Amino acid sequence: MQIASLGFPRIGRHRELKFALEKYWRGEITQAELSDVASDLRRTHWQWQADAGVEFLPVGDFAYYDQVLTLSATLNAIPDRHRGEGQIDIDTLFRVGRGRAPSGTNAPAAEMTKYFNTNYHYIVPELKPEQTFDIAYNQFFDEIEEVKALGFKAKPVILGPVSFLYLAKTVEAEFDKLTLLPSLLTAYTALLTCFNEQGVEWVQLDEPILALELTSDWQQAITDTYQALDAAPTKTLLASYYGSIEHHLDLVTDLPVAGLHLDLVTAPEQLAAFAEKVNTDTVLSLGVINGRNVWAAELDTLAKRISSVVHDRQDNVWIAPSCSLLHSPVDLEVETELAPELKTQLAFAKQKLTELSQLKTLLDDRQSPLAEAIVAHCALRRHARAKAADQSVIDRVAALAQQDYERQNEFVKRQAVQQDKYRLPLFPITTIGSFPQTPAIRGLRSRWRKGEITEATYTEQLQQVTKDTIERQLKLGIDVLVHGEAERNDMVEYFGEQLEGVGFTQFGWVQSYGSRCVKPPLIYGDVSRPKAMTVEWATYAQSLTEKPVKGMLTGPVTILHWSFAREDISRDEIATQIGLAIRDEVVDLQNAGIGIIQIDEPAFREGLPLKKSDWQHYLDWAVNAFKLSAAGVTDATQIHTHMCYSEFNETIAAIAAMDADVITIETSRSRMGLLKAFEDFNYPNEIGPGVYDIHSPNIPSVDEMVTLIEKAARKIPVRQLWVNPDCGLKTRTWDEVEPALRNLVTATKELRRKLG
């Protein structure tokens, strides 16, 4: 029995990679210095895994921007606009991901979307009908040599060819992506051959699409792919995760692979079928440690569950996390301020490696003193969790009735009341919520947290920032303003810090995309809101102007998905509790005079189960949680929501059922392509498609924005349309934001003259 790792976080326990990337982008360090930081992180993470007993260390899990993008570069599948004149290098990756790099010509960034049902974002490969593939970037090979130099064995971890094609988009013309599979397999065969020449024994090919309900052509592609790669000299571990693959049992067990990894956290029930059917000569990798949550594993329970399989298969069984530990914070040891009773219930990525070692101890000899101590510790954690219940919250959820989920009147009646109240022009202009979090703001927050300045001083200075933000918006000519969220560290963490039943960490960062990291709250108990969270800031901002200022909230579904949620009750129960807490805030905002309230749900689609047959149950409770949060207000209060990175076609009915008065969405990178769902469905409410890609530092021109608004107006009636950026502006600078918004306002005014 071996301990295995499918991948490790790359950002570092103190976000060393994030800071090095941003210094490089600003021109403060050289590419060589950036590479040195990356190399140091890889060595540290490999050593931790080796110390835990991992024999084959993952290579390919490290990326300067995104591992799918790294693979695209390796396969020479880089858009022409980002190539430049030389070879593919690190700057090429940044031009694709950001639209800009220290070298090369700026160009529109490639599309970015969620990786299956996670909060990690990948850069979508762009494939042309005549696309060919060959090895063009050497990062994988260089890192294998690094591992060998340290005296360890490398296991390349890369996205499998069928999943790569599935996640890619077609450009220039519509065509069947699977027609590119033969060329792609030639490149993968060359890649595996190169790995073998470097002494690699095992290669992990990730095919997470196996958790989907695949059509026959994609199933055939899986069969064809692994029959073709069977001739490669390396052993292949076929890995899938994020859901059960038992519905593909016959397909998968007939494949000529040396090993198979199963996610037994999301789908423990599939073990029995695969253990029976997978040949005993094939390695079975049991993904029993949760790679996507931070709660310590029930090791004693896990040992009992898998002991018979481990005993039967002996040398041909591995124990592993359910998926890459990319989705976990790095190291719990650096958390010095967590309450001890909470800290003992947690395991970050490094501690999950220890859990695997402890699980191996239980499986080897359950009667040993060390094994007995592990079992006793599990019992103590269960007792601590049971003490966290809040009966008042449980009772309040139980008392909910259907009318608690519904607005007073249907949208058409609400719309008339709101139009009469706000008298907004054609194409009302707004932003999504946040404005630049400057170094001065972050420094101010840091000094306040350290006690170096008083609460009064902190508040006074943030009020000045808020006043400046309002004045800038008024000068620009924006119609519905926001206060800018200078007081907020993160759109979820800020609320997590103020809710009962929710804790937070100092260094529990996980990567979202590029250098962007988030620090998810810990939902450890029943959730409630002890006091108002945003009312003071919203009313202060509204006092500065006659124009409406939106109250800005994060919705219950997003707070749930972007938190590390408890595992002892269902996710729909947690979402309902959070929905009640947000509802209380919405009502308080309305009563304080805030007439437009935005409840952001960017993670709404992210929570969908991977199998469509499981969607409806999720959509029912997710929609209800949002409606519960929004339904306590009068018709005159306009409820907005915001979504990003979403393919809306298959969930548009559920989005309409949320019954938000206005929805803003991210559409600029797709060039308004995502609006087809709203057009085909005849979406009844108002909509603001983003016309400014805030994930790129590039400033769109007036003409570009006019073109996008005109495209939107051809798909959606103009009286339903709002104009706004794709997302919040927190990560941008004022030097980028002000000219971009000035162009946005100019473009809107031009279209008002033309269409109004």
How would you characterize the overall build of this protein?
The protein has 756 residues and is an alpha/beta fold. It folds into 2 domains: 299 residues, TIM Barrel; 303 residues, TIM Barrel (Alpha-Beta Barrel). Helix content is 42%, strand content 12%. The protein has an 8-stranded parallel beta sheet. Strands 17-19-20-21-22 form a 5-stranded parallel beta sheet. The mean pLDDT is 94. This is 5-methyltetrahydropteroyltriglutamate--homocysteine methyltransferase. It is an enzyme of class 2 (transferase).
Largest beta sheet: strand ordering: 1-12-11-10-9-8-6-2
Gap between N and C termini, in Å? 71 Å
| Relative strand content | 5-15%
**CATH class of the largest domain, anyone?**
Alpha Beta
Label the structural class. Answer: alpha/beta
User: How many E-type strands?
Assistant: 22
> Uncertain runs with pLDDT below 50, 5 residues or more?
none
Main sheet properties: 8 strands, parallel
- By CATH, the architecture of the largest domain is named Alpha-Beta Barrel
- Please, how many domains? 2
The fold-level CATH name of the largest domain is TIM Barrel
**Rg measurement, Å:** 26 Å
Bin the helical content. 40-55%
Catalytic activity: 5-methyltetrahydropteroyltri-L-glutamate + L-homocysteine = tetrahydropteroyltri-L-glutamate + L-methionine
Protein name: 5-methyltetrahydropteroyltriglutamate--homocysteine methyltransferase
Pfam families: Meth_synt_1, Meth_synt_2
GO molecular function: 5-methyltetrahydropteroyltriglutamate-homocysteine S-methyltransferase activity
